[in-house]
Structures are given as C-alpha cells and as structure tokens.
Amino acid sequence: MFIGHFGVGMSLKKTAPAISLGTLFIAVQLLDLIWPTFLLLHIENVIIHPELGGNRILEFKSYPYTHSLAGAIGWSVLFGCVYFLVKKNVRNALILGVAVFSHWALDFFVHFGDLPLLPTDNSTHVGLGLWGSPMVEIIIEVILFVTGIMLYLRSVQFKNPLGKIVFGVLIALFVLVQLSSLWGPAPASENALAWSAQFQWLFVLLAYWVDRNTKRVLFTL
C-alpha cells in the first residue's frame, strides 16, 4: 500500500479544507515517514528477499514502534495533540489523528500477518494478506488514489498555472514510484531501502507547494 495512503490524504482535503495537503500527507503516511529513520538507527529492522519478488521482497522482521496497533494509536494521538496545541482546532486535530491511524488500518488489509498488536516481542501479529492477491491490491490502491485526486480537485481552485504544474508533477511522481516498486529491482541493503524511502518527504514538500497555489472551493455542485 503506497499511493492508496496518499489518496486518502487527498480525499480528506474536502472534509478539512483548512488543513494543508502537505500536513494531510504527513498524517496519512506518518508511520512510513518515521520507519526509514528507525531503520537507519537500527531501532527497527527489515529483511530483504530479492529472490522472492513481488510483495514478498520485504520481510518486516521488527517494527513494533511504528507499525504495531498500539504504536499507531500512540502516533495518532500525539499528532492530533500537537496539531491542536498549534492550531487550537479540535475538529481538525481529530481528523488528523484518524488520518494517521488510517495508515495502519489500510496496512492491516494488505500485510502478510506481520503487524504486531503490541510493541513487544511476543505480541500477536495480524494482517489479511491482500498482497497475496496483487491485482486486487492494485485495484484497491488505484481506486483510493483516483478518488483522492477527484475529491481534491473538487475541493480547491488553482490560483495560477504553477499550482496545476506542480500538482501534475506530484501525481506523475506518485505513478513513477508506484511502478518502480512493482517492477524495479530490490533494494541492495536495509540502509539503501531506508535512504530511498526518505524520498517520500519530497511528496510532502510538493503538496505544501501545491496548496500554497490553491484556494478553497466554497460551493460545489
């Protein structure tokens, strides 16, 4: 699950127009934005199996702090609270908290039973394993992504051509990265994977840039 998470972020713009798309992207992808840094710090780890191919390349050996159910709830509460302290908006803080948790919820459907419920070594692990049905998983991702684009475009008006260009670049990059993850070579090492995953912050920066060149749509038919 990759573009599906960002699709949820774009969809939420209609529900919370005052929240920047960049902030929404941080929320829906927060667990995966933190995870690469935890890999580099050896707090969590993953095993790469290039011989397996497809969605089985990565064996998520240990990620109790970013991808356990308890961890996801904790990050959701923390992110919502930080937003409330800065913006003093309870409704939007709750929306962002739910957005953070949506990441774990979507991962639950696709992961191969490797999501821990608690950040402990003997925790129960869950996951419905839709990665085992790649066409189904891809169709779900595309639906989430396209729906997000449509709802975002119905929620804003571009103030200038720059906004349209940057948004187009953003969508093109999403598609390229998604295709690369499906058919590109396996990462050479855990560190290589972690550094490449930091590329996601570019999507966040571009989303902030896009939003600075848009205005809210007050009424839509």
Topology at a glance:
Elements lengths: L2 H13 L5 H8 L1 H11 L4 E4 L9 E5 L6 H19 L2 H21 L4 E2 L8 E2 L7 H22 E3 L2 H23 L6 H8 L2 H13 L1 E3 L5
Antiparallel strand pairs: 1-2, 3-4, 5-6
Helix pairs in contact: 1-2, 1-5, 1-6, 2-5, 2-9, 3-8, 4-5, 7-9
* Uncertain residue ranges: none
Which percent range describes the beta-strand content? 5-15%
Report the oligomer.
Answer: single chain
Our count of helices gives: 9
Task: Determine the mean pLDDT.
Answer: 93
Structural class: mainly alpha
Describe the structure.
With 221 residues, the chain is mostly helical. The protein has one domain (3-216). 62% of the residues lie in helices and 9% in strands. The chain has nine helices and six strands; from the N terminus they run αααββααββαβαααβ. It has helices at 3-15, 21-28, 30-40, 69-87, 90-110, 134-155, 161-183, 190-197, 200-212, and strands spanning 45-48, 58-62, 115-116, 125-126, 156-158, 214-216. The strands form three sheets. Strands 1-2 form a two-stranded antiparallel sheet. Strand 3 (115-116) and strand 4 form a beta hairpin. The longest helix is centred in the C-terminal third of the chain and has 23 residues, at 161-183. The protein is globular and about 50 Å long. It starts with a helix and ends in a 5-residue tail after the last strand. The mean pLDDT is 93.
